[in-house]
Amino acid sequence: MSSDQEFLDFLRFSQHRVENALQTYLPNTSKAPSRLHEAMRYSTLGSGKRIRPMLVYATGQALGITLDKLNAPACAVELIHAYSLVHDDLPAMDDDDLRRGKETCHVKFDEATAILTGDALQTLAFQILSKDTSGQFSAESKIKMIEQLAFASGSRGMCGGQSMDLDAVGQDIDLVHLELMQIHKTGALIRASVNLGALSNSETSTDEAKRLDHYAKCIGLAFQIKDDILDVEGDPMMIGKTRGKDAKNEKPTYPSLMGLDGAKEKAELLRQDALDQLSIFDHAAAPLRGLAEYIVSRKH
Amino acid sequence: MSSDQEFLDFLRFSQHRVENALQTYLPNTSKAPSRLHEAMRYSTLGSGKRIRPMLVYATGQALGITLDKLNAPACAVELIHAYSLVHDDLPAMDDDDLRRGKETCHVKFDEATAILTGDALQTLAFQILSKDTSGQFSAESKIKMIEQLAFASGSRGMCGGQSMDLDAVGQDIDLVHLELMQIHKTGALIRASVNLGALSNSETSTDEAKRLDHYAKCIGLAFQIKDDILDVEGDPMMIGKTRGKDAKNEKPTYPSLMGLDGAKEKAELLRQDALDQLSIFDHAAAPLRGLAEYIVSRKH
């Protein structure tokens, strides 16, 4: 089997697994408040690339963890991601009508519900990690996971990156600032996904943890650069959102600062660096390797 | 010293203590993103009744815990409260311009910043609980606190109550539904505050925990009823917000459903029930007793 095919199989497998787990973790619409629960499920289930949960599973696999023990951290990172999308799409933020090929939460429901939906999805992420009864993780491991996820999500991580992004609209910012912003906005949660996977095995060595963290930093940045590239040359039908939003919103991007070719070259270098970090791992790390390839080659 | 005076001293002491602790926990404005950090500090520091942190300290004191060990849970509940206020005040929600006697976050900054500020304050609550290095709590206790706080904050707690509240605008709802809504919206976090205090001592007995939880349910409901009463007859200068918002927004309230006198009588019964629960505790529970009195008698 080609390594591409192997990666795609693992991705589909992760998507299926996390979808099932999210179905269980998300509150049922038969319970009050049903409209909020409906919006939470609408904004999380049925679509999405599930890159972050896949990273949790793939890292766990590289370290020899049974995958069905990893549902809680996999769902937690996806819930944080889903909450951030619901809030980012709000009129006061990016004002997007379309997400993952369907109406955004505030369009389908209303703005107030979208605000509360994001809020409740964030809370659920921490609830799931604290409540996890798989018996896989000690209280100490859970606390480390929560600390890691909270740091990655907060004002010094994803949420801070979003704030920097808003502040940067219409501003002349340089590559250093753009990178700092992206490391927070997208990179922090991707890094947390890998690190939660690494924390799932208490026997992970310092060298393994360090390499996995560096791998995550590389693919996180590559992921954002590729997003910027797709915003310029992606197929709107494939990317599931309007193209050229960044240019329209006067947002600084990698292509706007270093040209389309420069951005592609940088993504390629990051891919190679990411793969180098994985050299100490055996074939169990194939999905992590495949992801580094996929992030740079994907069409959506 | 009168018990009123004793309670007010403890409240002032708690306010001072939690303010200092929040000053330390909240990210500094010298760190990027400074605007977000400024908004987080603006929305949390300098004002607020601090009832929830006071409940953590007062419960801890009733159970013999040294108060300086309780800063993390005290700040965590206040951060969840502060985040909910920032989001509730947004134009798409309650659309309030004034809060705690000063401009609301979205008026002082902007809507996008207010959304992110609430998001980051919520995250910080969980970060503080997971990171707490006071050495007071075992990882098991921390996990229980996080689970409790997450449940109380999420779609089956505070956030769900806010959703029910929005759904109820302009609707004919009865007393049972109003109570269900309030139990979620205000009650859940007040209950969590007491329960986090109870969890701070691993030797708390089942009977103590049960009584404290019941006490918390009573004062939580009394607190909301009193808020509704103040919205009818409070002094705008004292309550720090516009009076009559509920009536204007066609929101069902206790006074609107059971009359002003009926609402006052119910608050009084809840006060008595709350005090009855504390009968097994000694003088260390004086602040909890004082709070039950204060909630019903307060002017703002």
Bin the strand percentage of chain A: under 5%
Strand order in the sheet with the most strands of chain A: 1-2
Which secondary-structure class do the elements of chain A indicate?
Answer: mainly alpha
Kindly report the oligomeric state of this protein. homodimer
How many distinct helices of chain A?
A: 14
Categorize the overall geometry of chain A. Answer: globular
Most extensive interface between two protein chains, with residue counts:
A-B, 52 and 52 residues
What's the story with the biggest beta sheet of chain A? 2 strands, antiparallel
Unreliable residue stretches of chain A: none
What's the gyration radius of chain A in Å?
18 Å
Q: What's the pLDDT, averaged over the residues of chain A? A: 92
Order of helices and strands of chain A: HHHHEEHHHHHHHHHH
**Helical content band of chain A:** over 70%
Total number of beta strands of chain A: 2
Alpha-carbon distance between the termini of chain A?
24 Å
Give an account of the 3D structure.
Two copies of one chain form a homodimer. In chain A, helix 3 runs antiparallel to helix 4, helix 4 packs antiparallel against helix 9 and helix 9 crosses helix 10 (206-233). The first copy, chain A, is built from 14 helices and two strands, in the order ααααββαααααααααα. The model of chain A has no long low-confidence stretch (mean pLDDT 92). Chain A has helices spanning 3-25, 34-44, 51-62, 71-88, 105-108, 111-131, 139-153, 158-168, 175-199, 206-233, 236-239, 245-248, 254-277, 286-297, and strands spanning 98-99, 102-103. In chain A, a hairpin with a 2-residue loop joins strand 1 (98-99) and strand 2. The first copy, chain A, is an all-alpha fold and 300 residues long. A two-stranded antiparallel ribbon of chain A has the order 1-2.
